[in-house]
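User: Structure please.
Assistant: Input sequence and predicted structure:
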Amino acid sequence: MDFARALHGAGVEILSTGGTARLLEDNGVAVRAVSDYTGFPEMMDGRIKTLHPRVHGGILGRRDKDEHMQAMAEHGIEPIDLVAINLYPFEATIAREGVSEEEAIENIDIGGPAMVRSAAKNFRDVVVVVDPADYGPVLDEMKGEGVSQATRRRLSRDAYAHTARYDALISQYLSKTLGEAEAFPKVFHPPYEKVQDLRYGENPHQKAALYREARPAAGDIVSARQLQGKELSFNNFIDLNAAWQLVVEFSAPAAVVIKHTNASGVAVHDHQPTAFIRARDTDPVSAFGGILGFNRPVEAQTAEEILKNFVEAVVAPGFDDEALKLFSAKKNIRLMAMPEISQAGKALDVKKIGGGVLVQDADQITLDPGNLKTVTKKQPQAEQLSDLEFAWIVAKHVKSNAIVYARDLKTLGIGAGQMSRVDSARLAVEKAREPLTGCVMASDAFFPFRDSVDAAAKSGVVAIIQPGGSIRDDEVIGAADEHGMTMVFTGIRHFRH
């Protein structure tokens, strides 16, 4: 409204349609109805309003071409020098619970994007404004020597980005209504909107920015609220996401320590401070400067333990008042509060490669204990099953090849990202700070040979969980039986590249 008043005060004649025209008039802003200008009434429930040669001719006509100006004069087309459009609220409409398809379709704007695109094409002569944040700068330039060509070009770019995002939202909505058959549409163009520039990317010589999905789930890291701390870096966001994705897999109170997107320690315990201590002490060297994740609000006693060492950031559903008071003494620690714990809806995983992207369903499958298959002579005990399920969840979030040793619902050693599975197993043993006697092992994929099983037995492993499916499964199972170990198959693989 302030923008319209300012334009009117500057002597600009305003053209508008239907409800907008009435709103302006009710607020004392003189307006000319588009239907009066075109001589053509609005019809079909307002679907036909601005799609008229007198409108688009006035926008698209080039002022530097005599033939354009002659055609405009011949047909009574007046030049339109500024187009300011707020498109129908399609995004807000489909975000409402229970919205019908009919209502969603009726909130697809046709005339608005057409005028925006016309004005954006003819930006040398026409100013196009789609973002209210640009109202002030445009008015300021109008008061001076006029809106510069540099500003017009920028506004044109922003206008095309605006309509592209709008169309992408519509396409995405229609793809979802087609069901599973259209899980991966013919053209993949998820609408992202920039949230902020980042100081730099993975390394200081790389520029970076954070973009938000059109409708991020409440459990996505981009929805987190920063309560204190320095500006988040590119790597911080990656590690915070890894911490959150892992910790919310557990229903019981859990603590996670992440370093370079891999878990260096994980533990579950009813007493949150104990869970954190156990997770940290898996690999205290790696925990220094790490990212922490909790699936319960952080308590004061936990905060005291956290503050004993340097950490980059903490993500959790919240923080107790006393914990916040303690953290305030270390203002550089980034505290991120998530709106809720559970993930919502189906998600896609997108990986950029040279010249394109790979798109897949996110690895959100959960392990059903009832589907575990014991393949060895020795059956797992109840405590072992709990540890096996715990280790399996951790392994799912460790870079392949992934090996996890665990006991009493805490990690003892984690081997990540090695070129061979046996190397990951050996690395996990080297990382362990206490004897592995009586522990369990999880492997994110099957064992191609028995060597990892033999190495595990020497380390004190008593039970193994793995997907199974190797052509040498019989050999691997036989090795476990030789060592008196328990082995269960999940039938699920969790590669993480």
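DSSP finds 19 helices and 20 strands in the chain.
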